[in-house]
TrEMBL record:
<keyword id="KW-0328">Glycosyltransferase</keyword>
<dbReference type="GO" id="GO:0000139">
    <property type="term" value="C:Golgi membrane"/>
</dbReference>
<dbReference type="InterPro" id="IPR002659">
    <property type="entry name" value="Glyco_trans_31"/>
</dbReference>
<comment type="pathway">
    <text>Protein modification; protein glycosylation.</text>
</comment>
<feature type="transmembrane region" description="Helical">
    <location>
        <begin position="21"/>
        <end position="42"/>
    </location>
</feature>
<keyword id="KW-0735">Signal-anchor</keyword>
<keyword id="KW-0812">Transmembrane</keyword>
<protein>
    <recommendedName>
        <fullName>Hexosyltransferase</fullName>
        <ecNumber>2.4.1.-</ecNumber>
    </recommendedName>
</protein>
<keyword id="KW-1133">Transmembrane helix</keyword>
<dbReference type="GO" id="GO:0008378">
    <property type="term" value="F:galactosyltransferase activity"/>
</dbReference>
<keyword id="KW-0472">Membrane</keyword>
<keyword id="KW-0808">Transferase</keyword>
<comment type="similarity">
    <text>Belongs to the glycosyltransferase 31 family.</text>
</comment>
<keyword id="KW-0464">Manganese</keyword>
<keyword id="KW-0333">Golgi apparatus</keyword>
<dbReference type="Pfam" id="PF01762">
    <property type="entry name" value="Galactosyl_T"/>
</dbReference>
Length: 344
């Protein structure tokens, strides 16, 4: 009897011991799993922080400049993110409709908006209403005709102007009143109209235009230039196969160091002993492809301006892989045969 009782107690003790061992091993395995998962999550978090820091540097929030190729990669990434967000919305709608995508349930599907050929900014200033009215009558059109030009030829045209030094004064009110009637202005509310800031104004136009319209080209024109829209469209269409095109009447010229001169350049010393500008398009009118306009927008904090907008634009592209197109038809002052523009 005693022998059987002892044997039973030993068996129970052994079983309890094995249970404790199993429990300890399971606890150790669970703890190790927790540490492993936590370690992986921490590593992924560090990787995300590193990637975000790198992206910040490349998009202008850090200290590094950005190349055209890197810019295009970032733009492509952002476009893919937008598409992904759109797909998520579409998926949610499909779930609510019994897994039937909305575009399949409609009899007539909607097509994506057609890409524009060009956005033209006519750079103007206060006191030039007569010039603007002449342009509206000669080649720009107004109202329904202007809208028809956008829809049928894919060309958007707007006057570009900033604000008065005394913001809200009679000059600003006159522009607001004119725009209320014609609705054909881009008003740069953060830009003050001064002759010294002409180059900055041109840069802000490109930034605004590429952020608001999806177009193949973006063109800057002075408000004393007359255009042949059909001829301009034909010239731009012939360069659609060049993704980084800088099109204009290319020129160079002397850099003037005398403050009294009309074309005085305060940074004249940067252009070397010969004091000659690098090749750039005339400021009367020039056009750039979408990739270059996007480059300006993304790198706005790094791109400096000189006294003249044509030289400034040329300086932004001089070190990039850009196709400089010396287009004789853009030489407005020459009145050449077949020109798309003419100076008033």
């Amino acid at each position: 009897m005693n022998s059987r009782g002892s044997s039973h107690r030993l068996s129970s003790s052994a079983s309890s011991f094995r249970n404790r061992i199993s429990f300890l091993m399971l606890s150790m395995l669970a703890t190790m799993s927790v540490f492993y998962v936590a370690g992986r999550l921490w590593q992924e978090a560090e990787n995300r922080v590193y990637l975000i820091d790198e992206l910040d540097k490349r998009t202008g929030q850090g200290k590094s400049a950005i190349s055209v190729d890197d810019t295009l990669k970032i733009i492509s990434c952002r476009e893919q993110q937008k598409k992904l967000a759109s797909f998520h919305v579409e998926l949610e709608k499909a779930r609510q409709e019994g897994f039937v995508p909305k575009h399949l349930s409609e009899n007539s599907g909607t097509q994506s908006k057609k890409k524009l050929l060009a956005v033209i900014g006519i750079v103007t200033r206060f006191g030039r209403k007569n010039n603007r009215d002449a342009i509206r009558k000669a080649w720009m059109s107004t109202g329904a005709a202007l809208q028809k030009l956008e829809e049928e030829k894919g060309i958007v045209i707007r006057f570009v102007i900033g604000r008065s030094t005394n913001q809200g004064d009679s000059l600003d009110r006159e522009i607001d009143r004119e725009n209320g009637q014609t609705k054909d202005f881009i008003i740069l509310n953060d830009h003050v109209e001064t002759p010294e800031e002409q180059a900055k104004k041109t840069k802000l136009f490109f930034i605004h235009a590429v952020d608001h319209w999806d177009a193949e080209f973006y063109a800057k024109v002075n408000d004393d230039i007359y255009l042949n829209i059909d001829a301009l469209g034909a010239v731009l269409s012939s360069h659609l196969d060049q993704p980084r095109a800088y099109i204009g009447c290319m020129k160079s010229g002397e850099v003037f160091s005398q403050p009294s001169h009309k074309w005085y350049e305060p940074d004249w010393w940067k252009f070397g002993d010969g004091k000659s500008y690098f090749r750039h398009a005339s400021g009367e009118m020039f056009a750039i492809s979408q990739a270059l306009a996007q480059f300006i927008s993304i790198n706005r904090l790094f791109l400096r301006t000189y006294s003249h907008d044509d030289v400034s634009a040329g300086s932004w592209f001089i070190g990039l892989d850009v196709k400089h197109v010396d287009e004789g038809k853009f030489c407005c002052s020459s009145w050449a045969s077949g020109a798309v523009c003419a100076a008033a």
